[in-house]
Write a structure and sequence with these properties.
It is a single chain. The chain is mainly alpha-helical. 57% of the residues lie in helices and 3% in strands. The protein has 20 helices and 3 strands. A 3-stranded antiparallel sheet has the order 2-1-3. Helix 5 packs antiparallel against helix 18 and helix 8 crosses helix 9. The longest helix has 29 residues. The protein is elongated. The relative contact order is 0.08.
Length: 379
Amino acid sequence: MEGAEWLEEVTEDTGVEKLKERCLKQCVQGGLEDPKTVTHHKLIHATSERVLSDTKTVGEENLQDKDVLLLIKKRAPAAPPKMADVSAEEKKKQEQKAPDKEDIMKVTAQLAARQVDRMVTQHNLRDFQTELRKILVSLIEVAQKLLALNPDAVELFKKANAMLDEDEEERVDEAALRQLTEMGFPESRAVKALRLNHMSVTQAMEWLIEHAEDPAIDAPLPVPGGKRAAAEEAKPEAVAEISKQDELTDIFKRIRRKREFRPEPRAMIALMEMGFDEKEVIDALRVNNNQQDAACEWLLGDRKPSPEELDNGIDVESPLFQAILDNPVVQLGLINPKTLLAFEDMLENPLNSTQWMNDPETGPVMLQISRIFQTLNRT
């Protein structure tokens, strides 16, 4: 590389641009009449390899005594391509484009035909969801039998039942409520309609239209807990002697009714707008855990499994169920009333699974069930 060396003495307040001009006078012939001469060169600090800024001083760039600087001419920008070159480049890209279907078929014509099941992943996922539901159905039966042996079971589940009443009174689906209020219905009436129709936007809207002229439409809903308490106080003493097992069974039935399936309002509306009637849409969403795309495929396909099959439990003699029952964490969970409530809730409202997976009491149980299923599924 050609070049020259020289020594420049400057003060700290000397500008970098001024220093560059002095350097250029040493090596550029013909002077600095062309203003571009200065801008087309740069000073670089040799040790740190950083370009010095023309707007700063020597002191601001922190240059020290005996520092070595390089004066280098900037590389000229590439000339814009000519139109002929652009056309040639585009033509080259066209020639390098991906092969079309005809080309692929021609090249692969000699390969042996192979059938690939493109639905394997989806079916595996669906199998897991179906098996999980069957597992929950059977575990609920086991948990009910175990909890019936607890001397405090009746009191525990009465408290749980009361908690569900409070939850039911307070819970309102915000998305469903917003849809109704955006249609112009008053919020108080929309809340009442949703509670009466299990958070179904379609049914709530029909109820609001049907009862628009009803004088009692704005009357508050009765409190379920108060009615039940009054009814229980009116029971004769003879009825109070009902066996603990029968009382538990009655409580379990009440809990299950409160945990009945609630279709996701947006998915419900979207599928009904495709032309499916309300009952079959609810069935599709229930079978497919409120997943709209899967529900649509179910409606357009063979509709397997059927809604009736969802209430069937897993084979209690199967290796999977036996492995689950043999797990110590699951065994401890089955004697916890909260686990039974979680199973009941996830059975009809799978979207609530995240809540129970993050719960410190029920989360470890669900984690063990998932691990056991995945382990046996791989083998």
